[in-house]
Amino acid sequence: MSTRSTERTLTFRRPFSLSVLDEPLPSGRYRVITEEEPLEGLSFAAWQRVRTLLLLPANSLPGKAREVVPIDPHELEAALAADGLESP
User: Fold this and answer.
1) Quick one: which of 55, 61, 50, 45 has its CA closest to 21?
2) What was the pLDDT predicted at 84?
3) CB crowding 39-65: b at 16 or more within 10 Å, else e
């Protein structure tokens, strides 16, 4: 079965939290990857999201690599909406 991935960059103006993370993330730009699989047996092309990943900034400590965290896309959209609703 083939999959496709789409990538987008989100910008947060303020620190934000997600339930899968121990601490809030700082404001900044974050890459998000969405992986989808095709739905079989339909007369038209349709895709179903199977995973959403958030790429965290690289840790500058020796031996630490970039971290990729699976996240709930609805929770991410809620955090992004809350960031846009707050006054500067």
Assistant:
1) 55
2) 85
3) eeeeeeeeeeeeebbbeeeeeeeeeee
Instruction: Give the DSSP H/E element, type plus range, for residue 6.
Output: strand 4-12
Cβ within 8 Å of residue 60, ≥6 positions away: none
Return the number of other C-beta atoms located less than 10 Å from residue 72's C-beta.
Answer: 12
Provide the 10 A C-beta neighbour count for residue 10: 16
Of 5 and 60, the one with more pLDDT: 5
Query: What is the pLDDT averaged over residues 47-56?
Result: 93
**Mean of per-residue pLDDT scores for the chain:** 88
